[in-house]
Amino acid sequence: MDWLANVEAMVHHSRIKVPYTWSVGETGSRFFVELRDHRRILGRRCEGCRTVYVPPRKMCARCFQDTGAWVEVGPEGTLLTYTIVRYANELQPVKAPLAYGIIQLDGASTGLVHLLGDVDLKAIRSGMRLAPVFQEKRAGTILDIAYFQPVKAA
Amino acid sequence: MERVAIVGVGQIQQERNKVQDTFADMVFEATTKALEQAGIGIRQIENVVSASNDFWDGRTISSMAINDACGSYDKNISCVEGDGTFAAFYGMTRILSGAYDTTLVVAHCKGSESHSAHITNAMFDPLYVRSLGVDSIGSAALQARRYLDRYGITEEQCALVSVKNHGNAFRNPCAQLPLKLTVADVMKSRMLADPIKLLDASPISDGACAIILAREPVARKITDRPVWIRGVGYCADAYHLGDRDLAECDALSKASQKAYQMGGIRNPRKELDVVELYDAFSYQELLWTEGLGLCGRGEGGKLVESGATQMKGEIPVTPSGGLLSAHTVTAAGLVRIAEAVLQLRGGAGEHQIPGAKTALAHGVNGPCGQSHCVWILGV
Predict the structure, then answer these.
(1) Residues B146, A16: C-beta atoms closer than 8 Å
(2) Model-level pTM?
């Protein structure tokens, strides 16, 4: 540290910005096309262990074999866990504070990470029932689901 | 199986912003210190395994950027993109393969040079998760909530970990953030992502660490105080957060069972003298103590409340102050190994656990403890 008394510590400012085009693959493409065109959420079931993966996976990690069948899941589901992020970062699609949850859609074995919206942040609890709200204009991305909101009591 | 020893470790001061050092400078300092402690020269190092992350370094093949700083430029060097404990595992297996007598393992990270949210968001799948803006704090909060809900762990119990580890850091000259705290201080600190508050989270840190491994006959020539690797276990869980039950840590249980079996540990709570954990967030120490079998499932909160994990408790956990007091990401697990070695050599100074003979060091890679590496070291 001694040299800092004699020399200004120089700092170089830069930024890495690299374009990517990620191939979504057959399994993911079917999922996103279905989401975009029909507002339906699809999972893939492993015929070995009956696990229903959402988002759908081409292979079952547990059985190490191809998942065999498409199944429609949800649209409603149960909140497994949640958080309310209070700080802003440049990547958040909505303004902080924003709520995230892991939602187990009806018929799915796994949880889907997504945004929670149209909800009193203080009233969010694990176990609450949720339904997806779809974007009017959909592009075939995970944000075609705008967020999950609490199911209103009948 | 032939025994492998750790014959030297080198740590450097961990700081919020080491503006005076490039990351290669840090690697040079840590490597030099490890060589000094072992009492050998760089020519006695036969190969190098490094741990770094290209996103954190801002350059690809980041191991090549430290080539001269770790003395590997005319040797075999391979890089582990992940925590240093996994690099040490690879370094050990290189010796066990019979190809090398000595391996230098070195890890570095400068958290100060980029933006944590950008880099940790990039851990996640670009198709399904990244565009949601989730980062390391948000994902950890999802795990914390699940764990607290499942077992009735309280935020105050998590806060006790922060109080303990920041307090321990006062006795560790390499720690970055010693703080005298109360549970109320932690509870009052700014909410980042419920239930994680500022003082439940680890700081942004710069640092590096190096260790030198040697096969038994070579180790005995280098030092009369080798620290033996008695057991190692390594286990990875699923990538997608929603594929895992985040309230549990089965990968850690499996990794520790492998390490205990290899090391002949039957009752870890009784047989371990000191434990150094990868506590990136306060709740993680509670969850990891459960995964390691130091207490039953859901009993991590009671364990910290009992005082057993204090410096002078029955099973001291993270006397160094841990990641809560300096989170050097890819170097953080290797620091845990280096700390365990200091304890076993009686060289930990003010945070020495008297008479420590058996130590556990732990490293994590991936969000919410996706993979774990557990080390049992002994003298």
Answers:
(1) no
(2) 0.97
